[in-house]
TH1 domain-containing protein
Amino acid sequence: MTIYNKLAERCLLITESAIYKLDANSFKPLKKPTAITEVGAIRIMSTDVQLVVISIPSAKNDLVIGLVAPVVNQTGAPGDLVGELLGVLANRYHMLTGQELIVEVESGATTRCILGGKTRALQLPASPAHAAAPPFTHAHNVITYHPASARA
């Protein structure tokens, strides 16, 4: 999601010291990278939904990421990318700052994020959406994430 509540397909690149958002087609960096030391916390859902919010307090604009595994594992289910992302970021954050990265695991179907300096609620739908539904929809200050696994 962009600060204008628009869906944008992006790639995420994590280097030794920064997080880059890349254009999904050209793989060119968008704007400037975010230093890993600027990450305030990571929020994840306790369900199998691959939703991550990387809090960047200095930018007043969190990274809201719906991870999509490019391949399936041996069981036929999509791979779990949240653990990989969390492990890499926590490791690099600790190496750079000497501190542990704050990880918040949301037990319900809602979390929060800041987009464009405004706090917004981020929730999972109560029931599966139809296949043509976009991954993110919004109404006022509430953003709903429709993961691919929940779409019929």
Summary: The chain has a mean pLDDT of 79. Residues 81-97 form the longest helix (17 residues).
